[in-house]
Structures are given as C-alpha cells and as structure tokens.
Amino acid sequence: MSEQDRRGNEHLDEMTCLLYVEGQLDHARAQEVSSHTEHCPGCRTLLHALERESRLLKRAMFEDEEPLPARLAVVPGRSARSLQWVWAVAFGLAATGVYALYTGYIEPWMQQLEQAGFGGTNLLGLLIFQGAFWKGWQSMLSLLEVLAMLTLGGFLIVLLRRRLRRGSALAMVLGGLCAAVMLPATASATETRRGDYVEVKQGETVKGDIFLFCHRARVDGTVDGDVFVFSQDVNVGGHVKGDVIGFSQSVRISGQVDGNIRTFANNMTITGNVAKNVLAFTQVVTVDSAGKIGGSLTIFTEILSLDGRLGRDLLIFSKDARISGRIAGGIRAKGDTLDITSTAEVDGPVHFEGNKPPDVSPQAKLKSPVEYQKMEHKPEYSRPRFYVWRVIFIAAIVLFGMVLFLLMPKFTEEAIVVAEGIGVSVGLGVLVLFAVPIAAIIACCTVVGLALGISGFLVWYASLHYSQLVVGALLGKWIIGPTREIWPLIGRMALGYFLLRVAFAVPYIGGWAKLGVIIWGLGAISLALYRRFQPAMPAPSSASAVGMQPA
Amino acid sequence: MSAPAKIEPVETIARARAGDADAWGQLYKEYAPAIFRFCRRALPTREDAEDATMEIFADLQRKLGQYDVTRSFTAWLYRVSANHCWDLLRRRKVRQGKETEDVETLPLEHPDPNQLDRLIEQRTSQEVRRALDKLGARARMALVLRYYSDMSYDEIADALGVRRAFVGVVLLRARHELRQVLGESSALAAGGTL
Q1: In a domain, B191, yes or no
Q2: What does the pLDDT look like over A368-421, one tens digit per residue?
Q3: Residue of B nearest to A20 (CA)
Q4: Chain A residues inside the 8 Å CB shell of B33
Q5: Are B21 and B91 part of one and the same domain?
Q6: Contact residues, A window 60-119, toward B, CB-based 8 Å cutoff
Q7: In this structure, is the dihedral angle defined by the CA atoms of residues A404, A410, A416 and A418, taken in order, positive or negative?
Q8: Residue A136 above 80 pLDDT?
Q9: Which residues on neighbouring strands pair with residue A261, listed in sequence order?
C-alpha cells in the first residue's frame, strides 16, 4: 500500500473487507464496498487476499492427514452398553459381597458373641465402643445401617453434585458426620485423675465415671460408673459398679466389678469377682482359683490359664490354653494347644480347632467329649472360594473408588498427577504411613482428642485402599492413555487396580509390591492434599491442568 | 452446512432414533471421521480429539431424540460437537487462567494487501494446520466453526457465547493470530498484522 493511499485515508478497514467477503454486510453497505473497490486497487487486492486466505483455511481444514484412530473404529453404542453391563455386574458383585459378608461372617459372629454373653446387637459397640469410651455410641445404628446411610448419602451427593459447589458438598458431608457424632450426647459425669500414682482410696466413693492417667493406679474404693485407666500398672481391689476399660501393661482385678472388663494389656490377672463379661487382648491371662467371672470370657491371647469359675461360655484365640477351673457354658477354642486338666469342669460342649489334639485329663468332668478339628493349612489359593472372594473384594473396592472419584474428581486427578512424581510420593508416603496411626493413638490417649484420633485412624485406613486406587488409575492412564473425563478415568482405575491385585497375588514379592503401592499412593494423596490446602499459589498452571495434559 | 456436503441418510437417522443399533452403527461410521477431524482441528492434541469424539457420540446417542428432523442433521451434529469442544476448552481455560482478553478491543487496521497476499501464497495447508494448533482456544475454535463446519455467524455467536456483532471481530482477530504464527517462522513477520 502506497503512502499516498494511506494519506488519502480512503481505504476500507479490514473488518469491513472481511464482512464483505463473508457476505455479512447489508445490501447498501455491500454496494458501497463494491463501488469503492472498483476504483481502489489496494482494497481490491485486500479483498482478494482475504478470499484466498479463506480458501487456504478451508483447504487446510479439509485436507486429511490423519486416519481415524483404531479406538474410534468401534461403534461406541456397543461399548457403552457393555460398559454399563460391566458396571451392573460390579454393582451386583459388590452388593452380593456385602450381603455374603454379613450373612456369612458378621451375623454368625454376632450371634456367637451374643451366645457367649455379650448380648449386644451393635457391632461397633461390641467391637470397640460398647459401654466403653462413650455410651452414646450404643444408641447409634448398627454398622450396616450406618454403611447404608453413608452409601445413600454418597450417592445423593453424586446426584446433587452438579447443583452443589464442591465446597458446599464437602461441608454437607462433614456437617452430616458431625451431626451423627453429636446427636447421641454423653450424659454421665466424669472425673479425671493424673499423676505418677493415682488411687481411689478405700472408703472413697466416685460418683460417675473416672479416667485415670498415671504410671501406677489403684482402685480400692467404690466407683459408681466406669473406670477408664491408661496406666502401666493397675490394680482394682475395690468395687466398680460399671465397666473397667484398661490400656495397661499389667491389670489385676482383685475386687468386685459389676460390669464388664475390656482390656488391652500385656498381662491380666483376675482373682476377684467380675459380674459380667471379660474381653481381653492380652498376652497372658490368668483367672486365679479365687477368680470368678459371671458372664463369658473372650480372649485373644498367647497364654491362658483358667483356674477360677466362669458363668457362661469361653471363646479363645490363643497359642496355649490351660483349663483347670469350672465353666458353666461351653468352650470354643482356636489355637496351638488346649490342655484340660483333672480339676476342670465344663457344662457345655467343647470345640477345639488346633494344630495338636487337645490334652484332656480322664478325670476332667466334661458334658461331652471334646470335638477336635485339625487346623488346615491348605494354601488359600487352591480353593475356588478364594477366587470368588477376591473378585467380590475387587468389585467392592472398585465401587468404593468409583464413589470417591465421583465425589472428588478434581482432587483425584491431582493425586494421580502427583503420583507421577514417584520419588516425592514414596518419601512422603513412608512418613504418612507410620506417622498418622501413631498420631491417632496419641490423640486417642488424650481422651479429648479421642474422636479426632479415631476419625484420623479411619481416614488413614480408608486411604490405604484409596492409595491403591490412585496408583491403579495412574497405571491405567499409562496403559490406555490420558483422559480428563471422570468415567474414562474410573475405567482406567478399574483396569489398573485389577492389574495391581494380580501383581499382589505373586508369592513373596506381592506383599512388598502392595506395601510399595500403598506408600506411593498414600504419599501422592498427602501431597495433593497439602497442595490443596496451601495458601493461594501463583498459578503455575494448576497441577491438574498440567498433569492431565497428554505428553 | 456446506462443508461435508453430503446427502443425509434420513432413513438411517430415523431408525437410529427408534433405537436400531445397526442404524446407529451406520451413522457412526458415516460421521465419526468428520467429527474426529473437527475435534482434531478444534482441540490441541490428538488424544483430546479422540476422547472428545467418543464423548460426543455418547452424548449424541442420548440426545438423538431431541434432534429436529426438519433441520439438517449435519448442522445439528456440528453444533453439538462445537458445544462439547468449546465447553471442554472453556473449562480448561478457566483452570489455566488464559485468554481473558476482551474480543471487543481489537484495533481495526488496514493491512498491506500485497504482503498478506505473499504470505498466503507461500504457505501450505500443512503449515496452516500446524499454526492452527498454536492459536488460542477461541481463535482456533472460531476458525474451525466457520471454515470447517461452515457455521453461520449466528451459530458461531451461539456456540462461542459472544454477541453476534462481534463474531466478525473474533474471526478477524483469529486470522491475525494465525498470520502472526505463520509469519514468525519467516521474514514476513511484520509486527503481528500485515
């Protein structure tokens, strides 16, 4: 374009020329442009150049240089339907798994425990919370009901996800959990005593529950409620009208306990009287000849020596058990050896599953001969049932992953991206794997942080599975290729997780592989979490955006 | 829609709408290559295009009942595809925080027609395709909608969420970007616009 042209300022602007070429001007304006270009070679050239540019663009767009990829050669309708079928099967298997787990294991176990004198219907309560830390738990629903509620809530959130901002969804979940935790509030008064040596003196009466944190503890007086003791050495010689819950190295019950005893200890000796049931996770348990338990005795121990009296059934998981006392109920024992001496009296049936036949004295007074079953050490993988359960388990975990991925798609993407940095993830994973449970236990010991500790432990436990799913998704991504959409990502996760499970099944190295994967995934999740809660970073293009970019 | 100018298989579409799997398969085979090419032009990578094509057809299967049989199936198909790809790009754009410029601020200039002519003459289709890959999302999408899908200005405005009056500006700006990318590799680069 010449300077003269420019100075004349009579040229059409490029926008007008483009609209003219594209046929977007109204008739009058188009006429003006047409007449102008008849006299203006510059604008005429521009019009021609724009037209040529349009043709070049069209040609470039339509010239085909890439064939249709192989994965697009399959009609998606069919694959979509088959995918739905796979998911339906996965759902079915998971539901069957939950049902089978409940009817096959949990329900009979609960019945067994009930027969053994526990009488509770709340599994959570039976396992951990029954009358122990918090009575409010007893009014909670059963474990299955809680699970059903959580699942329902999860699906509800998935359904409402598009209408809720992610923050509000999270707030809803946390709020719901808090509400569930807060509803059954604790009612009774509690007292706490700390020190190197603490005691409830003889003649003293404590109204309500008492917590004892000390090196050594003695309860010689009367406690109207429960006794919670965190101590190296504890001796209950007085009268406890509630339960005794002990986390100690050594527990000795020489007095009267009207409720139950639950202990996690190195050794426990009962020389006194326990009106209800005893549950112990203890290395050595001794029930002295003077000791008396009104209910049942359930123990997970190395050595049991029972010389006293038991009002109901005995359930043992031990290495060595010696029975010399009187048992008003039956015995179900599993372990290495069972020794029933001449002074023993058992009013119910005796069933023993062990490595060696039980040593039963002819003088022992038994209602019926001991049923002995040799413990089978047949490799698990030679049983078809092993594979059925594996499939059910994998389906259940994939289902769990699917719900998590749908609930937290962005976070999951970020975790998968972070997992690609193996070194950092593994380093952090080692720390988290060991530090979190330790921190949770410490939090539990402080009582104030009990709920926090238990929640932290549960989250940590769930993360052990989540970590495998994250690594599985990464593996799937490496195999099939990257994706940004959630359902293809879930598909990749399912494939990757399946392959991981196959790898875990390899003898000898499988276990180590699993540990490695857990550490790796746990580190990635932790790092993603850390980045998520870091104060606003100057956007070096967010982790997810970068990470999900194909190579 | 002139781009893939073909006679539309009305009967096959009707059967697919009625749930005939074979008809759906035929439709897919008929249109998948064009939609893949559309996605390949509109999205930055081949993997993106593959994913998007699959997702578009999954969507189509659900939305087929909404198709107005009195109108062009191809046009509808491209509209659905354009919306899908643009949604995808926009989501990513929000995450990456790019392309926040206002399309309405483009200075209108009169380029040197001879220089533009030379630039166009020297460039091959392949070079243009490579340059397209380097454009911003909106620019690339605008050019694809106009010159591949042959959409009207109204349709482009609808798809990109801009006022109809600014579709021309978007297209012109896209051309400028393209020329700049093309010009960067040669001595013809003359300050962005020619």
Answers
A1: no
A2: 888 888 877 666 666 777 778 888 888 888 888 888 888 888 788 888 888 888
A3: B168
A4: 64, 68
A5: yes
A6: 60-66, 68-69, 71-72, 75-78, 80
A7: negative
A8: no
A9: A244, A278
Q: Is A108 helix (H, G, I), strand (E, B) or coil?
A: helix
| CB burial readout A39-70, b (16+ within 10 A) else e | ebebbebbbbbbbbbbebbbebbeeeeeebbe
Q: For residues A423 and A550, is the Cβ–Cβ distance under 8 A?
A: no
- Report the pLDDT value the prediction gives residue A85, as an integer from 0 to 100: 54
Give the DSSP letter string of A121-176: --HHIIIIITTTT-GGGGGSPPHHHHHHHHHHHHHHHHHHGGGS-HHHHHHHHHHH
Domain end, chosen from B63, B96, B129, is at B96
For residue B158, being part of any structural domain is answered with yes
What does the block give as tokens for A64? Answer: 């085909």
Determine contact: A550 vs chain B, CB below 8 A.
Answer: yes
Nearest to A321, CA basis, from A307, A337, A345: A337
ipTM above 0.85, yes or no: no
Spatial CA neighbour of A306 closest among A323, A319, A326, A282: A323
Which domain does B72 fall in, by range?
A: 10-96
Which CA distances in Å does A133 have to A119, A130, A546?
A: 18, 8, 47
**CB-CB neighbors (< 8 A) of A13 in chain B:** 108-110
Domain boundary residue, one of B47, B74, B96: B96
Backbone angles phi, psi at A195, to 5 degrees: 145, 180
The answer to the question of residue B20 being in a domain is yes
For residue B70, the distance in angstroms to the closest alpha carbon of chain A comes to 25
CA distance A28 to chain B (A): 18
Instruction: Report helix, strand and coil shares of chain A as percent, to nearest 5.
Output: 50, 20, 25
Q: Do A550 and B32 touch (CB under 8 A)?
A: no
Contact call for B113 and A49, based on CB within 8 A: yes
Q: A14-21 and A41-62 are packed helices; what angle lies between their axes, rounded to 10 degrees?
A: 60
Q: Which of A67-76, A428-437, A527-536 has the lowest mean pLDDT?
A: A527-536
State which amino acid sits at residue B176.
Answer: H
Identify any residues that bridge with A351 across adjacent strands, giving them in sequence order: A332, A371
List CB contacts (< 8 A) between A544 and chain B. Answer: 95
Q: Could you tell me the CATH number of the domain that includes residue B155?
A: 1.10.10.10
- Gyration radius (Cα) of chain B, Å: 18
Q: What angle do CA A269, A271, A273 make, to 5 degrees?
A: 115
B180 and B155 in a common domain: yes
Tens-place pLDDT, residues A321-348: 999 999 998 898 888 889 999 899 999 8
Is residue B28 one of the residues assigned to a domain? yes
